[in-house]
Specification:
Elements lengths: L2 H7 L20 H4 L4 E2 L11 H7 L13 H12 L19 E6 L3 E6 L4 E6 L3 H8 L4 H5 L2 E7 L2 H7 L3 H22 L2 E3 L7 H7 L7 E10 L3
Antiparallel strand pairs: 1-4, 2-3, 2-5, 3-4, 5-7, 6-7
Helix pairs in contact: 3-8, 4-8, 5-9, 7-8
This protein binds flavin mononucleotide.
The site of flavin mononucleotide has 9 residues, from loops.
Length: about 230
């Protein structure tokens, strides 16, 4: 069986939970916006290639098949970014003071999924208009409008500011880099196309996602099945 068939075969209909009706005008209460959390498939802790091969293969790839991302792949990427890997709550990516300011989202053509590291779950809300709004925020960049999934690395800097004051901004951005690299290497290891996108208007991106006040967008990672 080809790798693409394998991935597609793993697809579960979690993403079909919502059928979006566009971006809310402004953030509403969490319960009003997101559905009940759903469990993601357990992440694999081995893979098809070695870490060294994944590092060697990683390349920014901007062309995607239109096929939806299988939920197993989404779960694997989110786990790589912020999954909990120890009994005391520590995660796949390091965090200054273990304060964990990052929040991960996945935007699809129809929904917005918010990752809940506790229990490796996600809460999902409809959002048909979010992907084009994110593309507009990213200066119209084509991969943002075309990727079947855009992983959004967002942050609540106040979580880190309480302890680290003026260093917090840098720390939070460094952490976003750690999480993003884990995600990019996981994509490379699993034959997925992905590209880190840093050129976007932060206020516009936060509005597109209807993020709560105090939460900011640091990175967009369009990802999908590779088209070549
Ligand atoms: C902080 C940062 C921001 C980036 N922003 C964008 C972007 O907005 N759009 C894009 O297509 N690529 C973006 N890239 C990807 C770079 O263009 C890419 O990493 C570079 O050309 C090297 O190629 P490689 O990633 O294949 O090694 C960004 C990379 C980094 C590290």
């Amino acid at each position: 069986m080809k790798r693409r068939d394998l991935l597609t075969g793993l697809a579960v209909s979690v993403l079909a939970v919502g059928c979006g009706q566009g971006v809310p005008a402004r953030p509403q209460g969490r319960a009003a916006r997101y559905g009940k959390p759903v469990a993601l498939p357990a992440p694999a802790i081995d893979g098809p290639v070695s870490l060294e091969q994944a590092i060697e293969r990683r390349r920014s790839r901007r062309s995607f098949l239109p096929d939806p991302l299988p939920v197993a792949a989404i779960g694997q990427l989110l786990w790589a970014g912020q999954g909990i890997t120890s009994a005391d709550g520590k995660r796949t990516a390091p965090s200054a003071g273990a304060l964990y300011p990052l929040e991960l989202y996945v935007v699809t053509s129809t929904d917005v999924m918010h990752y809940l590291p506790q229990g490796h779950r996600a809460e999902i809300r409809p959002g048909t208009g979010v992907r084009p709004a994110l593309q507009a925020a990213a200066l119209g960049q084509a991969p943002v409008g075309a990727a079947p999934g855009i992983i959004v690395v967002a942050a609540v800097p106040a979580r880190t500011q309480a302890k680290y004051g003026t260093r917090a901004g840098a720390f939070v951005e460094l952490e976003a880099g750690h999480a993003a690299q884990n995600i990019l290497l996981t994509a490379a290891a699993r034959g997925l196309a992905a590209v880190p996108v840093g050129s976007f208007d932060q206020a516009q991106a936060a509005a597109a996602l209807a993020l709560p006040a105090g939460q900011t967008v640091l990175y967009l990672i369009p990802v999908g099945l590779a088209s070549t």
